[in-house]
Amino acid sequence: MLGLMQDRPLALPHVFHRAEQYFGHKSIITATATGESAMPISQWAQRVRRLATVLDTLGISADGRVGTFCWNTGRHLELYLAAPCTKRVLHTLNIRLFPEQLVYIANHAEDEVVFVDRSLLPLLWPLVDKLDTVRHYVVIDDGADVAIPDDPRVHDYEELLAAAEPFEGRFVVEDENTAAAMCYTSGTTGNPKGVVYSHRSAVLHSLISLIADGAALSERDVVLPVVPMFHANAWGLPYGCLMAGSTIVFPGPNMTPQAILSLLEKHKVTITGGVPTIWMGALPLLADHDLSALRTILCGGSAVPKSLSESYREAIGVPMLHAWGMTETSPIATMSTARSHHDSMSEAERADVRARQGQAVPLVDLRLVDPGSGEAQPWDDTATGEIQAAGPWIAAEYYRGEGGGAQFTSDGWLRTGDVASIDSTGFVRLVDRTKDLIKSGGEWIGSVELENEIMAHPKVAEAAVIAIPHEKWVERPLACVVVAPGETLTADEVIEFLRPRVAKWWLPDAVEFIEEVPKTSVGKFSKKTLREKFGGYQVAGPIEH
Ligand code: AMP
Fold first, then answer.
1. Is a pLDDT exceeding 90 seen at residue 468?
2. Residue 250 Cα, ligand 1 centroid: separation in angstroms?
3. Which DSSP state fits 377?
4. Which atom of ligand 1 is nearest to the CA of 328?
5. What is the average pLDDT across 368-389?
6. Given a cut of 50, is residue 181 above it in pLDDT?
7. Which residues pair with residue 470 across a beta bridge?
8. Mean pLDDT across 506-529
9. Which residues are known catalytic residues?
């Protein structure tokens, strides 16, 4: 027997029309090079309607890929809706990628048009001759002092909008499985792989950002997404905010800690989100700002060091809300929101819980699988295994099925490549990534855990641990440490600091002091670069453990 409920598509036009109808008076604010622009949603929605017909005028195919090369701005949000609501596919290009990767991605996705912020033109324009399918470049003038090429392919965003008729009536996407957006993962090896989100996945994922045990976005919130809109849809915050009716504050091109903190203070932001690097940078400046309105700092993309979260709790009373996910998981998969069974814990124990990646949000299923045997592992907080994920906003395959066969199991789960233990209440604790594990004498050393312990040292700014080859143990850990500004530190001090904190055989065989941990295009530690740098590393002299 079938249920007798209406079969209505879960599609982004609903999010657009809901925002337009109910929240027209709410603001979308964007920080610009010269100040700020604020626009009521009613006006923004009219611009989306004009943009919809602009895409027709430019001759973008019925399911054409609409590239964006933009900062977090209100105009980027116009594209976030206009492209999918007209059944085109929004393709957010990552501005931090290397030129060859950008060329590969735009060609692979077959972008027909790229909307580019004027300030970012110098990164994109040198590549145009290699972008085979792009017919139009639409420059969004963000006030940057950058020459606009005199080329028939180049258009001005505002001129196109001014000349366009607004689309009338309601946008309709009949099939909720239609592609809405795509984003390439910056894999550490091989070519980037395309993740293609559907309307259904985007709507369900947005809904999850409204739940009380998640980000809990509400109409009363003022939300500042620091996490870029070119990386996994800014963790779903833009669509979530429109669905909830939250006020949105976009940081624009100026992503310095000072600028972010000023916006948080000025607009009495209640929810913000960004990778740990952002919050590490802002930490020394917290005392200069009144952040009393802030209730949630979403943090993820890399493990959130306990020390960082605790510093925020102590300074402003708001620890990090730790979340885990991947481009392939839209990205929210787990969140470490405190539960009632944590209430009786000491503050120190609660800090340990916050350092975990948290519990799977509703509709996401996880399992823990031993990478060698393929056996499911118990959720006893001790056994470790690879996390595999399944759910309506988890990728089933990569665009054109390329390069990712190994990442999906035969029974349809995503192999995340992240290694974790899970406690009996489902709280995930990531201990490593399969590509990063250090296997010493047949036993695993969690490099991420080791890094977190080193980063808890007050004189350490950043640390990354990689495996170096060892004759006897096969692999041993090398700690690459960045000393905090103005401090001095020796290898022995690092080891002595670690000694009471980790098993003896986990102590790094060597400590290298480096100026900065190399980062990938999305700000994560690039272990690959470090491994290349220290690949032939020979331990100079034994550090006495
Ligand atoms: P990306 O697809 O670029 O967003 O990268 C996803 C990967 O980042 C995950 O598979 C993890 O390895 C890592 N990651 C994301 N969030 C966290 C987190 N909270 N803790 C540790 N690693 C994380």
1. no
2. 23
3. P
4. 2
5. 94
6. yes
7. 474
8. 88
9. 185, 328, 439, 444
The C-alpha atoms of residue 330 and residue 509 are separated, in whole angstroms, by: 38
Q: Write the DSSP symbol of residue 65.
A: E
pLDDT, one tens digit per residue, over 216-253 is 999 999 999 999 999 889 999 999 999 999 999 999 99
For residue 417, the ligand 1 atom closest to its alpha carbon is 10
H or E stretch covering 275 = none
Residue 98, classed as helix, strand or coil, is coil
pLDDT in tens, 493-508: 999 999 998 888 889 9
The residue to mutate among 101, 298, 321, 326, having the most atoms of ligand 1 within 8 angstroms of its beta carbon, is 326
Any residues with Cβ below 6 Å from ligand 1, and which? 185, 232, 300-304, 322, 324-327, 331, 357, 416-418, 430, 433, 522
Global confidence as pTM = 0.86
Domains of the chain: 8-212 (3.40.50.12780), 436-533 (3.30.300.30)
Give the C-alpha separation, 236 to 96, whole Å.
20
Instruction: Quote the ligand 1 centre to 288 CA distance (angstroms).
Output: 31
Q: Are 409 and 389 in contact (CB under 8 A)?
A: no
pLDDT at residue 142, rounded to an integer: 95
Strands 65-69 and 359-360: unpaired
Contact 199, 176 (CB under 8 A): yes
With 70 as the cut, is the pLDDT of residue 539 above it? no
Query: What is the 254 CA–ligand 1 centroid distance (Å)?
Result: 24
